[in-house]
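This is your field. Please look over both lines of this record.
***
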Amino acid sequence: MEAFLEFPRSYRLGCAKFYSADYLFAIETFLIDAESCGEALALARIYAEQSPYFNPQIPDFDCLIRVRQNPLVPNLGEPEGHL
C-alpha cells in the first residue's frame, strides 16, 4: 500500500491568547483547514471557546484569536479578532 502525503489546500495556523486584564495566562495553537479567511476565523473562534482556558468568569477576561495563512498558498490574509 502506498502512502501519499497531501497537504490541505488552504490550512492556516490558529492561535488563541487568553488574558485576565493585561496578564497573558495561556496560549493555544491549532491547525485549521479552511477555504476563506472568514471560515478560518470562525473555526478559530469555535476552537478557542472549547478551550479549558476559555472562562468568561475570570476577572477582565479577554481572548484574542489570530489566524495565519499557509505559506504555500498566497494572498489568504491574516485575520484576527477578540471574542
Observations:
- The helical segments are 37-49.
